[in-house]
Design a protein that fits this description.
By secondary structure, the protein is α+β, with helices and mostly antiparallel strands. It folds into two domains: 148 residues, Beta Barrel (Elongation Factor Tu (Ef-tu), domain 3), CATH 2.40.30; 75 residues, RelE-like (YaeB-like fold), CATH 3.30.2310.20. It contains five helices and twelve strands. The strands form three sheets. The protein has a six-stranded antiparallel beta barrel. The protein has a four-stranded mixed sheet with strand order 9-12-11-10. A two-stranded antiparallel sheet has the order 4-5. Strand 11 and strand 12 form a beta hairpin. The protein starts with a helix and ends in a 6-residue tail after the last strand.
Amino acid sequence: MTKQDSRLISDSLRPIGVMHTDFDEKFGVPRQPGLVMGAQGHLSLERNEANREAIHGLEGFSHLWVIFLFDQVFGKAWSPRVRPPRLGGERSTGVFATRSPFRPNPIGLSVLKLDGVQETDDELIINFSGVDLVNGTPVLDLKPYLPYSDSLEGATVPDAFKKAWSELDVNFKEEALRQCHDIDQNEHGFSALIRGVLSQDPRPAVQRDAKKEFGISLRGYNIRFRVEDSTCQVLSVSSGKDTQD
């Protein structure tokens, strides 16, 4: 590829809009789309005639492929071999055999449930659920999910990738439950979102000490939790962003 070819590709790839989601940071984002259906988001497009024409017909589809940029890893080094969580963080495999965000080109692909389209004075808004994107993620393109071709009978994967993650049981300390109840009055489904996200065990595979306390940020709230065996206990819920330790 010539330098001119590279420049043409760079000049041609422009985000169509930005995804707004429940996830304030990478830590805690579900590892795949559709695992936490309570995780919602919406794509904001500029309100103009071209975009209005471009989304015409979307209402006929239940799911869309969302092609996006892993913008939080821009400029960071990638390796041809990685240690994915599904392999316990100890065994390595080729990056092209994983969905790691650290890639030669940081492009992601998620199939998300389409929940409808809205129009405001300034924006066209496309609503999704089952989201696995960080708030503010730039989106490059949308394509319809086609069951007859996208769901392939007889497709195979290595044994380690055949089963879904084992889910954790999630319970709340009394104070955390009270805090969530108060938040739920204004933010419907917040407690369910916490349960869904933590049931997927967001801890790094190499940091699973039962005594360690972690924090994730959802919708601007900090959730502190600890995992022991197959149970996750929510310790506290407070306003204000706080990243994992």
